[in-house]
Amino acid sequence: MSEVTRQLLENLNALAAGLFLLTAFGIVAMRQAKACLNLFILQSLLLAASAALLGLRYNAAHLYGVALVNLISKPIIVPWLLRRTSPAEIYTRREINQVLDIPIALTIALALVIGAYFVGSALANAVAPEFRGPNVPIGIAVLLLGAFTLTVRREALSLLIGLLVMENGAFLAGISIARDLGMLVELAIATDGLIIVFIMGVLVRAVQKQIGTTAVGALTSLKETAAAPEIDEAPL
Amino acid sequence: MSVIVILLLPLLAAVLVCIPFGRRWVAGVTVVSCLANLILVLRLACQVVAHQMPGTLLEAPWSNWIAVDGLSALILLLIALVASTAAIYSVGYMAHERLTPKKLRLYHANYNLFVFSMLAIPVLAEPTLVWIVVELTTLCSALLVSFYNTREALEAAWKYVVLSLMGAGIALFGFLTLFAAMHAGGGGTYTWAALVTVAPRMPPLLMQAAFLLILIGLGTKVGLVPMHTWLPDAHSQAPTPVCALLSGIETTAILYVILRLFPVMQAVPGAHAESWALVLGLISVGTASFLLLQVKDYKRLFAFSTVEHMGIILAAIGLGGSTATYGAMQQIVSHSVTKSFCFFAAGAALLATGTREIAAIRGLMRRSPIAGTALIFGGLAIAGAPPFAVFLSELLILKGGLAQRRYIAAGLLTTFIVTAFFGVMLHLNRMVFGASANAASMTAHPAPDTTSAFHLPFSCRLALILAAVPVLALGVYIPRPLHDLLAMAAAVLTR
Predict the structure, then answer these.
(1) Residue B273: which domain range?
(2) pLDDT per residue as tens digits for the range A193-224
(3) How far apart are CA B169 and CA B330, in angstroms?
(4) How many domains does chain B have?
(5) How confident is the model over B384-427, as pLDDT tens digits?
(6) Does residue B353 fall inside a structural domain?
């Protein structure tokens, strides 16, 4: 492989990782649940692209496997599972009353990314040079953005996507620093993601049946102090 | 080969219970498979003790994937024990719930899957696979927590899943970082045993990062304090036998994964893993002991007590030294057997009265002597009164702390344990012996018929008695093989 191709592959990987981060910002900012899902699918495709590019660059065959697993499981099986398990209502929901409004949420997200950059660079410096690159800081940033989405959202689908985004972030860093993890483990992790979608889909259906909405953030009756009277939650 | 059989049995049982042969079949399969597993695990533990070598790999060709040493044998034994008593308890308890046959099959299938996922944690040797089965424990138990499909149960299950999986996401990054650290230190196959050998050559920064990520990530699932908010909800809303599993053993099984990192971290000078454990442990014990004072629901009371005990175990590991570490191992055992008993007692009280509110129950002793006795017995045992198992292990931990000259930590631990003792006994004492003070309100609500005696189902009584044996016995006498196993488990934790 010539020096030019190597450079090109590394730059393309950096581009994929940058776009990957951008989709995470999009997920923080989007109100429409369906749009979050589409962005998540796009993000998974970018993860697959990054894995394939790194696989080419470092001649690591099993990263192609990671790319393939991501290509099949997230864009195809995840939406299919969601359709099978949960009510169609989750797609149509819009979150008007977010805990934080979008400009504030994006500002905090930006601060998280800057923090992640410093932590990620420090970590990347501790490994051998060929494991460095943009993947580690961006992976950590997306991990944090996913966690942040989880804390500010109330809608079931957005929460589920927040969890999957966290896993995507951990993976993006993982394909760079833990390249030889082994196919069995990668496959098991992918399967695990699908089980998450299945179980949460089933739970959402039960919630929708029981309280008539998929805004799980409205469930706040379990507390220490109050033998709280049941309040019918305000419509969103 | 026995390890493989131990893992396959609950899976087989989960498939078998789906065949609609009636209620007896469903419950019978679960009980038989759990008891068979207990026997197999006992045999395995005896083999491990007989080898007298911590870290012995029993499965040579599989050793990259499956390995059993003293610590894993101890955790396996506890899982199998609690799963068996809880399965026996389930028979009568779930019959009392009058479920549809389909719902009952769902319960038992999920129960067996949950037991499988827990049994896999201690025997798997490859850390990322362990991470996956930790995720599986969450996913298999989520539908058990939401089992009653009430508003509260669904909320608890949702919180449980979201927070645990959020923690798992952080832990996943931790495990990948650990892998990178091992790779940088010279590589080899990624197993717990190999990690300990390679540890001195691994970059300290990566190891510290990995340790903290895993401590925070899996600590969420153990219920360590800043991340504990889901625990009282999930551990109180699930059906009682499941609560016994969740509180008694699931938390410990996850804590085991964190404990596995300590011998690795000891190779790094200035890593301060012990200090992190001590601080986080003390915060958990302290917060939980004060939260115990203000609970309104007696199942939540025991759930908070779980947070407290997890804190005690972690703090004991943090104190370091052979006595405290041995004490921590003993505390793991005494907590598991006692907490499962406590939930069985709480379930008996729930069946007898139909309410989970502490304030609504007074004079339980008159309504149901067996539930009342069990509850006060369990309360004294879990709060750490002599001559029960928890008292002995807590005493050992404090003794270890004093021997290490950690006077402040040991003093704080004592204060919190005493506070928790009063918290638990305050509530339970009123429930069991309290005069039904508001006689006026009793006549206003004549619904609970206090005169007719309540009959606890036979299998529940059997499970209570079986679970009470180790609670009492381990408080006065530790059998020789168990002592050896505990010592071996403690030896795994120190380099």
Answers:
(1) 145-493
(2) 888 999 998 898 888 888 887 787 777 777 76
(3) 31
(4) 1
(5) 998 899 999 999 999 999 999 999 999 999 999 999 999 999 99
(6) yes
The minimum CA-CA distance between A134 and chain B, rounded to whole Å, is 15
- Say how far apart CA B164 and CA B156 lie, in whole Å: 12
Whether pLDDT at B445 is above 70? no
Helical ranges in B246-388 per DSSP H: 251-259, 261-265, 273-291, 298-319, 322-353, 364-367, 369-383
Q: List the single residue in A127, A199, A219 with the smallest CB-CB distance to B180.
A: A127
CA of residue B451 relative to chain centroid, distance: 37
Using an 8 Å CB-CB cutoff, list chain A residues near B303. none
Write down the domain spans for chain A: 3-217
pLDDT band of residue B54 (cuts 50, 70, 90) is very low
Q: Which residues in chain B have their CB less than 8 angstroms from residue A168's CB?
A: none
B86 Cα to chain A: minimum distance (Å): 24
Task: Put residue B126 in one of left, alpha, beta given phi > 0 → left and psi -120 to 50 → alpha.
Answer: beta
| Lowest mean pLDDT, pick from A173-187, B171-185, B369-383 | A173-187
Any idea which residue has 């089980």 for tokens?
Answer: A195
Q: Are B94 and B27 in contact (CB under 8 A)?
A: yes
ipTM: 0.91
Least reliable range by pLDDT among A73-87, A177-191, B469-483: A177-191
Distance from CA of B183 to the nearest CA of A (A): 8
C-beta separation of B76 from B122 below 8 A: yes
Give the integer Cα–Cα distance in Å for B435 and B444: 17
